[in-house]
Amino acid sequence: MHFLYLFTSITGPDMLRILTLNVYFDSIALTLRMRAIGKCVERLRPGVIGFQEVTSESLAILKKQAWSRYYDCSADCIAPSNNPYFVVLFTALPMLSIETYAFEETRMGRELICMHLRVSETQTLYVGTTHLESLKQNGKIRVKQLQECFTILKRHVDEQAAEKKARSSTSSKQSESRSRCLGAVLMGDTNLFREDAKYLDPNGYSPLVLEPARSNRALCRICNTKINKNELRVGKSHTEERSTREIIHWYHRHCFEERATDTEKINLEQLFQNTISNQEESKVTGKKRSMSSPPSEMIGIPTGWIDCWLCGNSNTEKNGFTFDGRINKLISNPSYQSRFDRMYFYQGASREGSGGTEMIERVEIIGKEPIAENLWMSDHFGLLSTFRFNLEDN
């Protein structure tokens, strides 16, 4: 019995589970930990798996386990790098192609592995996994690598859409013109720190304020005309060149929107919605307050890409930690918490809708439970996303 049937039997024929996990390169209790990871795969039955920090020894253990016979492994097609550890993809879906991309800038031999997979007779999907540059001081390099990943996968999806459009206008074979790429999934250990946001989008990183003007004395920094009293104005923090003091520059909302980055537009829309709620609140309390932009974990993420974890109604940066020293005793710092491990989805421009969020059924953090006393299957937790694809949608 093919494993593809096994994993669809617990999720449904139109659903696909994708798992990402940093398996931890350390040799501590290696066999026991890899056995626990194998049991996790057998229980969850993901269609695609991205592993990071894989060593030759840990890969050999994983490939000897029963579940692996139902998967194609990227390491069987393209030899892993000569680095102490590397990334691999396992797929139970038919693989159409596989490629590796060494990053333009890396001091640690980091790369992106990408597969083009067949999800159904008429649908395909690109999946990539990576392990971005480690250490806090390498933020610029790490962000550049992430942007490379987004660019590469987006290009693949957009090229497929263009080819499909060309085929549909020239081909007489209906089966060819019906084939469509659903999008791309990027997953792995991003090593992203909160401070990296300033490299992702320097403009979007600056906090915004949206409030009614308190007087008519302020001038818009773009059109240099007065902002009328009680008119909604946008404020953005700037650091003066000759000092470290921050000041707020004020703008007409329409002027600011014309020059805003994608991140700033998203933040501004959130502020506007919050302002409407605030106005309703002020009718009851009689108090007014200005709205500061909420902390945005999507700063710098290109248009069309979504962070799968944040698609959940109750999912936030603070409850999405996949590297948590307060729980996982394999982490030396007992107070350190981060959402290093992430999964992004790009639906492409060929479909209308909510940008792909309706295709994400749920996202779960896995591996939080110890497998023995003070031992976890990795120092990272994994991320499991369930996607729903409409097999009738051509």
From TrEMBL:
Cofactor(s) the protein needs: Mn(2+); Mg(2+)
Pfam families noted in UniProt: Exo_endo_phos, zf-PARP
GO molecular function per UniProt: 5'-tyrosyl-DNA phosphodiesterase activity; nuclease activity; single-stranded DNA binding; zinc ion binding
Cell location: Nucleus, PML body
Annotated PANTHER family: TRAF AND TNF RECEPTOR-ASSOCIATED PROTEIN, TYROSYL-DNA PHOSPHODIESTERASE 2
Database matches in PROSITE patterns: ZF_PARP_1, ZF_PARP_2
Keywords carried by this UniProt record: DNA damage, DNA repair, Hydrolase, Magnesium, Metal-binding, Nuclease, Nucleus, Zinc, Zinc-finger
InterPro entries in the record: Endo/exonu/phosph_ase_sf, Endo/exonuclease/phosphatase, TDP2-like, Znf_PARP, Znf_PARP_sf
SMART domains reported in the protein's UniProt record: zf-PARP
UniProt keyword Hydrolase present: yes
Domain of life, source organism: Eukaryota
Domain PARP-type: 208-256
Membrane-spanning segments: none
The organism of origin for this protein: Albugo laibachii Nc14
SUPFAM superfamilies registered for this protein in UniProt: DNase I-like (SSF56219), Glucocorticoid receptor-like (DNA-binding domain) (SSF57716)
A Gene Ontology BP annotation from the UniProt entry: double-strand break repair
Protein name: Uncharacterized protein AlNc14C1G147
A GO-annotated cellular component: cytoplasm
